[in-house]
Design a protein that fits this description.
With 335 residues, the protein is mainly alpha-helical. It contains twelve helices and no strands. Helix 1 packs antiparallel against helix 8 and helix 9 packs antiparallel against helix 12. The relative contact order is 0.16.
């Protein structure tokens, strides 16, 4: 039984991912708001909507630092405060970034905004996972975990489409107003989530609970390797829309397998930790792949070399799953 409150958490997760990835896929907040130029590869690749700028080389790392920085605080936040309120404040933070970004003038402004967006996304995503588990009966939680993860993937896809339409069509520049609407809709939806009160468990401000799932480190490496290869490959497409379709096609089975595998490797009390860790690894590796593509293109690496590297990464990820991850999972699973 998937409750109305669970459906609301999925809607919020969809809207938050659409908002964040509309900015993330723009390579940097600066290039998204103020424009840039397409890239023509020396080997004859046509310009595509992915915009490569030097600022992207440090915007992405700062975003990821913010994403992980909130992790050790997550267990304390969702115990010391109402979990819905943590989600609401994270959505407010993401909304503030969207409102402030057009008025930023210096490079360090974008660095601060990228870090703030990472913190907001991390806090919102983690609180959303916790709430999505709290509002579902115990016997339905694995199914709920999968549906919640799929709602985030759908949001990533829509965010990418918004950004590409923004760049590809003359009328697309009006779509930036959608980024003002998304956090408002997410806030209104989250305000109606009703979650049961949970007595505080964690006593320390910094804690690995609901953050690091060390039992799943081998599947995590496999997820990271595959997702990194997907991120690296996306800008290789002459048209960004096939790149998004490619991402969804390859991330979907990874996401489904990853969520289920992490949950079945966890003890009952570790379900939240397993889901959070899986999401963090996947998003970090995917964005890391985009950062690597940004770096390689700016460094002048040939398109052929980049394709060879990416094919090798995909092959390594597949071989790791066959030879290491799958046997590990079958031996260590608990459910």
């Amino acid at each position: 039984m998937l409750t109305p409150d669970f459906r609301r958490t999925c809607v919020v997760n969809f809207l938050l991912n659409a908002l964040v990835y509309a900015l993330v896929f723009g390579v940097s907040l600066c290039s998204f708001w103020h424009g840039g130029s397409g890239l023509s590869d020396a080997d004859g690749m046509m310009p595509n909507p992915f915009v490569f700028t030097e600022i992207g080389l440090w915007i992405y790392p700062l975003f990821l630092v913010g994403l992980w920085a909130v992790g050790p605080l997550h267990a304390y936040l969702v115990d010391a405060f109402r979990r819905r309120n943590v989600l609401l404040w994270a959505l407010v933070g993401a909304g503030v970034v969207v409102v402030v970004a057009p008025h930023a003038m210096a490079g360090w402004h974008y660095g601060v905004l990228a870090f703030a967006l990472g913190v907001s996304y991390g806090a919102g995503g983690m609180a959303g996972i916790t709430l999505s588990i709290d509002v579902v009966p115990s016997g339905h939680r694995t199914r709920a975990n999968v549906l919640f993860a799929l709602s985030g993937l759908a949001g990533m896809l829509v965010g990418g489409i918004l950004w590409m339409v923004y760049w590809s069509y003359p009328w697309g520049n009006h779509l930036h107003y959608a980024l003002y609407v998304l956090p408002v809709l997410a806030l209104l939806t989250a305000a109606y989530i009703r979650a049961p009160f949970r007595a505080p468990i964690v006593q320390h401000v910094f804690h690995t609970d609901r953050f690091l799932f060390l039992r799943g480190w081998i599947p995590a490496l496999n997820v990271a390797l595959w997702a990194f290869a997907v991120g690296l490959a996306m800008p290789l497409f002459p048209d960004g829309f096939p790149g998004l379709a490619f991402m969804v096609f390859l991330i979907l089975p990874l996401l489904l397998y990853g969520v289920v595998a992490f949950v079945k490797l966890s003890f009952h009390c570790q379900r939240d930790t397993a889901n959070t860790f899986c999401a963090l690894v996947l998003h970090t590796a995917l964005i890391g792949g985009l950062w690597a593509a940004n770096y390689f293109f700016l460094s002048g690496i040939s398109l052929k070399s980049l394709i060879h590297l990416d094919v090798s990464l995909f092959a390594a990820a597949l071989l790791m799953w066959i030879g290491v991850t799958r046997p590990y999972y079958r031996k260590r699973r608990l459910r």
